[in-house]
Amino acid sequence: SSAASDVYKRQVNTMIIRRVTMDDLEEVVNLESAAFKMTKEQTRNDMVGRIENYPDTFLVVQEDGKVIGHIFGPAFNKRYIEDELYFNNHPNQKDDRYQMILSLAVLPAYRKQGIATKLIEALVQVAKKQKRQAISLTCLPKLIKFYEKRGFHNEGETNDDIPDPTGVTSVNMVRTL
Q1: Is 170 helix (H, G, I), strand (E, B) or coil?
Q2: 27 or 35: which leads in pLDDT
Q3: Closest CA to 158 of 57, 95, 59, 86
Q4: In the chain, which end has fewer C-beta atoms inside a 10 angstrom radius, N or C?
Q5: What pLDDT digit, counting tens, does each position of 89-104 carry?
Q6: 126: Cα separation from own chain's centroid
Q7: Residue 110 has what pLDDT?
Q8: Which of 104, 53, 48, 49 has its CA nearest to residue 76?
Q9: How far, in Å, are 20, 76, 158 from residue 173 at the CA level?
Q10: Above 60 in pLDDT, residue 133?
């Protein structure tokens, strides 16, 4: 039955990008806490609120049934990320002009394969459908080139109140839609 095994082979390496569900909670907690060196307890509370409040702009990439990456953030009425967005999860509002990216994370074994780019582009499509004007994020200086290659522009250093464990000031990166 070589036909059956061909079908199986084709389906083994299926990668899909979709909206998060509460069933993804443990996998996104593990991914996020590892990527950003946070405790799982702290991360779990944050993730529950994010999944409940803006599931439409919280996307996961799944391969062979396993979540291997995610991207998420709320819509916001200001151009740049502010502290409150990390701590208070609020539902997306129709009139918010900006789509924020609070996190983009891919499991180490799956990096350098274009998955982060696919996640960004998937969120761009959601943001365009929702009539947002731009996508905004903050990143460390070492990631500026990565985001510039994906259409973002460096709009200068963030306010000092954005948490950064290393003492390096992050920058605001914005991509117009």
Answers
A1: coil
A2: 27
A3: 86
A4: N
A5: 889 999 999 999 999 9
A6: 12
A7: 94
A8: 53
A9: 24, 15, 10
A10: yes
Ramachandran sector of residue 64 (left: φ over 0; alpha: ψ -120 to 50; beta: rest): left
**How far is 123 from 100, CA to CA, in rounded Å?**
10
Joined tokens for residue 119: 């996640």
**DSSP assignment of 44-89:** HHHHHHHHHH-GGGEEEEEETTEEEEEEE--EESSSS--THHHH--
Given the structure tokens 């117009």, which residue do they identify? 176
Using the predicted structure, report yes or no on whether residue 4 has a pLDDT greater than 80.
Answer: no
Residue 138: both structure tokens together: 């903050």
127/13 Cα distance (integer angstroms): 28
Residue 143 DSSP symbol = G
Say what the pLDDT of residue 12 is: 54
Q: How far is it, in rounded angstroms, from Cα 140 to Cα 37? A: 15
158 pLDDT more than 60: yes
Asked whether the predicted pLDDT for residue 11 surpasses 80, the reply is no
Amino acid identity of residue 101, one-letter, is I
Q: How many CB atoms lie within 10 A of CB 144?
A: 16
Handedness of CA 50, 54, 59, 65 (dihedral sign): positive
Tokens 């990096």: give the residue.
111
